């Protein structure tokens, strides 16, 4: 497309090849991978193959990294900075590999030394969603760099969720995944409790997917509402939430269901009562972390 920055992708594994193929639908893309089979597959998707990572940076304005390990990203970053650094700040690296926020901040600092922009753009979901263009990028970086990266990212997936400075895109993904993995433990415990009481899994899923049920309501009604506003008067008292938690533990003991996540959550509500939050809405447990 006329006027579009030329994109490059280093790392043509499952995700990197999909990123490159999506970009190739709307403009020229240069790519490289150390694996010959991956290079051949990307070429089948109209990706122009370069001889190495530095050659990708020579051919492209914006270089996306899609690599399996943080140390691989660090190594490749050094290769591409040499080619991008002589452009008077016009070069840009977009890290899509999953790395830690500290690694992303260090990479941003290294890129800045070389006069190159750097954005961390974590991918929210998997290969299939990116292939369909339905995933999202979680983006952190300096505003000008993010603005330059956004048109390229939107050629892959329309949703680009911007956070704050360098590293916050990767931090957002880590937090999101931590929620998903912890929630999976809670849901597995809930399924076991329900089964012990004769509730079918389909029935439980139908209950929990309701807008005002246990999965969505704490997010929409509590975290996005009361916690964001610091509004803890009224609502469901913490002591009532503690009572419900105790009933769940009692039911688990009666049904022989071991609990881990729910047991730990019960301890939080016990601490909240001791902190004087009994008559506050149970969203007030968030204040236990304020210090």
Structure description:
The chain is of the alpha/beta class. Strands 3-2-1-4-5-6-7-8 form an eight-stranded mixed sheet, with helices on both faces.
- Alpha-beta classification: alpha/beta
Indicate the overall shape.
elongated
Poorly predicted runs of 5 or more residues: none
User: Fraction of residues in helices?
Assistant: 40-55%
Q: How many helices does DSSP assign? A: 12
Largest sheet geometry: 8 strands, mixed
Order of strands in the sheet with most strands: 3-2-1-4-5-6-7-8
Number of strands: 8
Explain the layout of strands and helices.
Elements: E1 7-10, H1 14-24, E2 29-32, H2 36-43, E3 48-49, H3 53-59, E4 62-65, H4 70-84, E5 92-95, H5 101-113, E6 117-123, H6 127-132, E7 136-141, H7 143-154, E8 159-162, H8 168-196, H9 201-208, H10 217-229, H11 238-255, H12 261-274
Parallel strand pairs: 1-2, 1-4, 2-3, 4-5, 5-6, 7-8
Antiparallel strand pairs: 6-7
